[in-house]
Specification:
With 240 residues, the chain is of the alpha+beta class. 22% of the residues lie in helices and 42% in strands. It folds into 2 domains: 117 residues, no CATH class; 85 residues, no CATH class. Keywords: Signal.
């Protein structure tokens, strides 16, 4: 009986201290092995069908084509009767006739041009749906320290990510299942001019269920909330 009790105690100690025995890069490698075991993201060529639901506006249906080997991106979005297209082909922005007409009819000019918005959409979709593999990109700085944190009543292995100044100024935290290493939450914070985190800024995103796209496990349901007050912002649904 004493032997079994000793083994049980050792198991508890190892479980509690596991986060001290793995680096951020090692945890990332395990997460990538879970989500993209065949290493398919680097040659990803596929189309994602995404429905966005937000509290104060109608749903938006998007068709997102990402072809990484050909540096091609295309987004077709439909909300109510309005359809917009954003295309980037090897870095060149393409404006369709219908979008050209829509832009010409705008009475007030937006803060960003159509092509600037295209680049933002391309970065947005390739980053979020390419996680955690995108954390291998240049300019991404993974913390060596892995911690065990409780979030919404569940324990996770977490690490912090900072980016080189030319990549981004936000600070991200990623939360992984301690058993499977699946990525289940990520969270970002804005920073001030000194690079310090603004605690009441940013958002956290809960990931639920999975869709297998090109043999990559991607989150099927992505729900967004404000950090400061847990206010619900919206949900992205990856359709199959």
């Amino acid at each position: 009986m004493k032997t079994y009790f000793l083994i049980f105690c050792l198991f508890l100690v190892n479980s509690c201290c596991f986060s001290q025995d793995i680096t951020g890069e090692q945890l990332l490698d395990k997460a990538i092995a879970y989500h993209d075991p065949e290493g398919n993201w680097k040659t990803f060529n596929g189309t994602l069908f995404i429905t966005m639901e937000t509290p104060n506006s109608g749903k938006r249906d998007s068709e997102v084509t990402i072809n990484l080997p050909e540096s091609y991106f295309k987004l077709i979005s439909k909300r109510d009767s309005l359809i917009t297209t954003h295309t980037s082909d090897k870095g060149a922005c393409i404006i369709t006739k219908s979008d050209s007409l829509r832009i010409a009819k705008q009475t007030t000019k937006p803060n960003r041009s159509h092509c600037e918005t295209t680049e933002l959409y391309k970065n947005y979709y390739t980053y979020l749906y390419g996680l955690p593999m995108k954390l291998k990109d240049p300019g991404t700085n993974i913390s060596d320290k892995v911690e065990t944190k409780r979030f919404k009543g569940k324990d996770y292995l977490t690490f912090r990510v900072d980016y080189d100044s030319e990549v981004g100024s936000d600070v991200w935290c990623f939360y992984f299942n301690p058993t499977t290493y699946a990525m289940e939450i990520y969270q970002f914070f804005r920073t001030d001019e000194q690079g310090n985190i603004k605690p009441d800024s940013g958002e956290y995103i809960l990931l639920k269920d999975e869709a297998l796209i090109n043999h990559i496990k991607m989150p099927k349901i992505r729900t967004w909330y404000y950090n400061k007050d847990d206010k619900y912002l919206g949900t992205d649904l990856l359709m199959q």
